What does this fold into?
Amino acid sequence: MTDNEPNADLPELSEEEKLRKLEAFVLDDGLRKLEQGLGQFNLFTTLRLHEKEIIHSRILGWLLSPDGSHGVGDLFLRRWLMRVLHRAGPASGKRPSIIQIEAARWKSVEVFTEWRPRGSKDRLDVLLNMSTDAGAHWQVAVEMKISSNQSVGQLLKYQTALEKDFPDVTHRVLLFLTRDPEPPDEDTDFIGVDFEEMEKALGEILAERAERLGAGPRGLMENYLNLIRTWFMDKSEIAKQARDIYSKHRDALELLFQHRPDAIAKITDRLGKEIEAALSAAPVKANGTNRGHVYFVPVNWLHDVLNPRGKFIYCDIKLRSGKARLRVILDAPSADWPDLLSAASKAPFKRQGSAKSGGKWTTLHSEDLGIKIDNDDERNLDELADQIKAAVVAKWNGAECKKVVATIGNQISQRAAN
It folds into this structure.
């Protein structure tokens, strides 16, 4: 079912029945309670910071630092780690036990946010290097994903870099913290965790020490705790209220969903109509749209057999997942195009993920257009579409994209000649 497709189970309703269901929904006391919960002031949502990973990284780094201005010392560090590791199961490798965490006496804790391994452009969200009175070295690394997914091999690169740069670590804890369930790479020691244990640890600390904390730190911690409960937990009271309301008023909500404004669909439709004219300097053929995706193919990639009508290798302006991106897609088993995959593993290509033999499709090249977009965007849609189109044109006419287009065109020509 697509984002705009009505629920197939929604019964046919008369106009009077639709109106009655909407009225019952609007008058529901549960809706009032939900609005009150969501309407509480929250610093992070007010400033639209709740989905910015860098903000979460810095807040987490602040909470984990025993010397932070929050005034709780290493209490959050210990409570959160013990909860996370208890949930993960028995200690293994360099991962410590809960008893070892409880008994540890750290004499120094260094906290780094956005730590960059040597020679890498990637940044690990939070890194803690700790030493104990007994001379042991501990390390905690946290990679966080709020509105994106892990790149293939990303966690393994971080683990390899940490093991190389810090070979003398006695205990190492690697955490992959996500809002939505996403298992970490099986080839790593990263533990997949969600925000539930953080909510419990922070909630306990505020309940125990609220009166002893300064007003500023306490307010920030309370705002962040409220943010976690509201936006990052399925088991929160607000989540329960929302599920209850949906169960009672499913028909009304489905009706509202069907008729909601759809910014992404409107921008998709407009860009689909204008892409050929916008990229006329290097001719392309429009190749259709699907909500949140605008497809096109450079003319020099077209081939009656190898790439008919841009069926297997094409470009995609992706308008979903919070960011606008320009991508090049191989929509065929990677094993069928080994030379192209080899070429795409080197500059100027910017790969997103990896290609495994037998995979259905692969992103050969991906460029961030630097524009965030969501379906409830309050900006003028024509202006936003113009910004995205201008960003696409700028990337498309840039030196890197020109080399990518030429490289793929040459690959298709060489294969056709053989």
The longest strand covers residues 362-372. Residues 1-10, 353-359 have pLDDT under 50 and may be disordered. Residues 399-417 form the longest helix (19 residues).
